[in-house]
Amino acid sequence: MLTVNSPLRLINSLVPSKGSTNQYSVHCWRSDQGISAASSDNTDTLGVIHAPVLDKTYAAAEGLGASRHQHGLTETIRVALTPAAGEVVRVVGSRSHYSADIEDYLSRFPKHELIAVGSSLKFCLVAEGSAHLYPRFGPTMLWDTGAGHVIAKVAGAHIEYQGIANPAYHRENLKNPNFLVSAL
Q1: pTM of whole model > 0.85?
Q2: Domain boundaries, the chain
């Protein structure tokens, strides 16, 4: 199954608003369901995120690795190393969905830097090593996270969805619970 993000979401992110930086993205991913009825291997195998204004494209495929393409150059990307004790933990979060839950979560890290970013690029910043964490406390839908999930996972990130042991993208409920993308 190949899925492309919702056109309405794309149009909504193009409409200028307070603090808008045009950090929208177009993304798609491919998921392969298990080969047989006995298989529970529902895996997300390919993800691509393109940010036209930034001229960046992130791509990943299981078994092939993750990369960033910008200004004609393609580089392999990997999550950042865990910061040493006392070093700054870089956390990426939404510009438009900041909440008390995020504030509470950040209190765990005496030294942290919050990087506000729009769209699915938050997954990419963890994947490329520019951020260590992306906590999301609030609603997202499957099509918002599929490509980013694959890119971050292939780049070495750990992704945990609250209340879902296997966050396979073949499920009836398309709404995601809270989640954490982590390089730690």
Answers
A1: no
A2: 2-182
Q: Which residue has the tokens 């992110």?
A: 13
pLDDT tens over the chain, length 184 residues:
444 444 444 444 444 444 545 667 787 766 654 332 333 445 557 899 999 888 999 999 988 999 999 999 999 999 999 999 889 999 999 867 777 888 899 999 999 999 998 778 999 999 999 999 999 998 888 888 889 999 999 999 999 988 877 666 666 778 889 999 999 8
The enclosing H or E element of 144 equals helix 142-154
- Contact between residue 60 and residue 66 where contact means Cβ atoms under 8 Å apart: yes
Q: Is the separation of the CB atoms in 48 and 28 below 8 Å? A: yes
Cβ partners under 8 Å of residue 65, min gap 6: 76, 154, 155
- Annotation: CATH topology of 2-182: D-Maltodextrin-Binding Protein; domain 2 (3.40.190)
Contact 50, 10 (CB under 8 A): no
Residue pointed to by tokens 């990130």: 157
Can you tell me whether residue 157 is helix, strand or coil?
coil
CB-based contacts of 16, cutoff 8 Å, min separation 6: none
Of 158, 98, 153, give the one whose Cα is nearest residue 133: 158
Helices (H) and strands (E) in the chain, counts: 4, 13
CA-CA distance, 101 to 152, in Å (whole number)? 23
